[in-house]
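Input sequence (222 aa), recorded before submission:
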Amino acid sequence: MNLIEVIKQLDLNLFLLINGLHSPFFDQFMYAVSYKMTWVPLYIAVLFVLVKHWKRESIWLVLALVICIVISDQVASGLLKNLVKRLRPSHVDELKDIIHLVKGYAGGMYGFASSHASNAVGFALLSSLLLKQKAYSFSIFAWAIITAYSRIYLGVHYPLDILGGAVIGALAASICYGFIYKYRPSLLKHEAYTEIERPVALVPVSVLGLSFLGIIVYSFVS
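Predicted structure, token format:
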């Protein structure tokens, strides 16, 4: 068995391990976490902080976030999935009787790379670099990790799909941050952050916490 085959086998084994750790509660929880519209309040909260603090200049930061998501999403879904054409585990005939799918959700045909992972990591990294708040950074990266994990749990991505997406998201965020640093360096000066009111900066953290609380309650009662 060569190195590539070993990696593929490890990838499959880890996928089966994570996907096999299912329960009625986590079926509902991970499905809700993976649903993109669940996190619209979070995105709005981050935009609120940017606009509240940077006023008219926030347009550059908002634009950077939008471009970051577009790049990460299109590279992962628009380019690599059609180029690599790696079947999602949910579409592999040999696995159909083994894996656990939630609510019959199987996703599209191809899985590498995960756009959920690329978008989540890209958004988390770039927004944390912009806000520079420890509580926010910890919370948003925890959110990105749980979001990525949910895709494996739901049976629609292998771990390597997630890793590939995460790398793409990190690169997209780094590129966008680099452009801000080069063309709008005044927005990233240290003194720009000392004036951020802590209650305002923690709005996204509160929204994120309430969103997860809502998902937990929903998962218990469903």
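Checked by second reader. The chain has one domain: 3-221.
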